[in-house]
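Tutorial handout. Part one gives the primary structure; part two gives the three-dimensional structure as C-alpha cells.
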Amino acid sequence: MKFQVMLQILFKLLRRRKVSAHRLAQECGVSLRSVYRYIEELSVAGVPLDVARGRNGGVCLPDTYRLPENFFSEEEYGAAVNALHALYEQTHDEDCKAALEKLLQQRKADGKSLAISGNILVDGSGWGDAYDFSDKLHALEDATERRECLDIAYIDREGAESRRTVEPHLLIYKQNIWYLYAWCRARRDFRLFRIGRVRSARGTGETFERRAIDRAHLPLRFTFADTELVQLRLAVEKLALPDAEEWLGVNSIRTVNGQLFAEATLPAGEVLVSKLLSFGSGVRVLEPQALACAVRARAQELAALYEEQ
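Part two.
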C-alpha cells in the first residue's frame, strides 16, 4: 500500500507538476501527515520534490525532472504500462492516462541530451550528470520558446537559495557556460542566471510578452576591449594536434621543419593557465615567458598535492 501511494503521488506530480498536499491526501485516500511522510521518502530516493508555502503553494516537481533511465527494468516497464492501461480502461483517471503517455514517450525518446533550436543542435550534457543538465536545458529552452513564466529555485555563489518568478528571454552559451537571460519579477529588471545554479525550474502556465533586448547592454563581455591579451606561441605534439586545432582553429597552426607550432592572441588569466594544463605534455608554452612560468608553477603545485598522498 505504501509504495502504491508513493507511486500514485509521483505520477500525479509528473502530470500536474504542482499539487497541494491536501489535494494529494484527498485523492490518494491517506492522511495529510502520510502525504508529507511519503514526500520526504521520495525526496530521499532522489526525486527533487519541493514544498512551496503560502496561498499558491503546494508540492512541486520541477519541469526538469524525468524518470531516470534505470527506474524500471524491461520487465517492470512492461508490467507498469499494462497495469496503467488496464487501470485507465476501468477508471478513466486522467492521471493514469498522463502517466502512461509519459512512460511511452520517455522510452521512445532517443536524443534526449540534445537541445535543438532552429538549425543549431547542441549536446548540453556533461560527464556524469545523468542527463540532469540536459533535461534542465530542454525545459528552459521550451519555456523560452513558448514565452512561459518559470518558477525557479536559484543558488548563488555564496550558497544562498532564493525562489523567484522569471520571464525567460534568451539562452546564452559562452566559454563553456550556459546562462538564462530573464526578466526577474522580484527585481523588476533583467537578470543573468547560470543554468548550472538553477536547482529546479517549473513552468507556471502563464505566458508573457517579450521585452526589447539590447545586445550591447547584455551583462556579458562579447569583446576583449577591457581584457589583457597575450600573444601566445606554443609547441604542439602530434597527438595533441586535433584538440589544439579545435581550440585555436586550424589556421593558427603551422609546421616548421617537421615541428608543429601554434600562435594566437588570447585573454590572459587563470582560465588560460587551466586550459593549457588540460593538454598535459601535449603543448608547451614558448612565449610569453611569464605565462610559461605560471603554468610551471601551477603544475608544481599539483605535483606537490599528489605527493602528499
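Part three, for discussion. The CA atoms of residues 245 and 253 lie 7 Å apart. Residues 108-113 have pLDDT under 50 and may be disordered.
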